[in-house]
Task: structure prediction
Amino acid sequence: MDVFDRTFLPAAAETGLAVQTISRHMPVFRRCVRADDPTILVTRCTRPDRPVSGEHLLLMTYQRLVVTRQSPLLHRLHLHLNTELRYLSNVTWNPDPRLQRVELAVTVIDGVRERFLIRTESPKQVWQVDTLIDHAFRSRLRLPRAVTDTGRPVSPLRRSTGRS
Result:
């Protein structure tokens, strides 16, 4: 069993993904991710700008961001996004524990802005997802860790939009 396999299943279980969902999307993920690249996060997500575009599954490793889409009617799988983290710019994410969600927005190399809404089951899970995303981009970009006056970690990548 390679590193990807060993880390993918626990990451998927952490977010409560069903085995059927995992097995349906796994062949697409396998084609995109190297065997020695550990999984950080696997979760369902939606696109706020296209709410009826079908189910999306987001996979983040230390090297890549991969998003697959399942069409709503025929349940066909499509690769929506497959890129290395280093090619992403203007990366922002906004955790909202009250609404139990994290909004992740990235600009891909061709200039397209992609937004993903990750819904969680609890406010605690919002902060877990926030920490995982922070860790992935901080390790990729080698950014220093900053904290607020209350001791809460702050990411220079994260920007608050003022929405609640």
Remarks:
- The chain has one domain: 3-154.
- The first helix runs from residue 3 to 14.
- DSSP finds three helices and nine strands in the chain.
- The beta strands are 39-45, 55-61, 64-70, 77-84, 89-96, 101-107, 113-119, 146-147, 153-154.
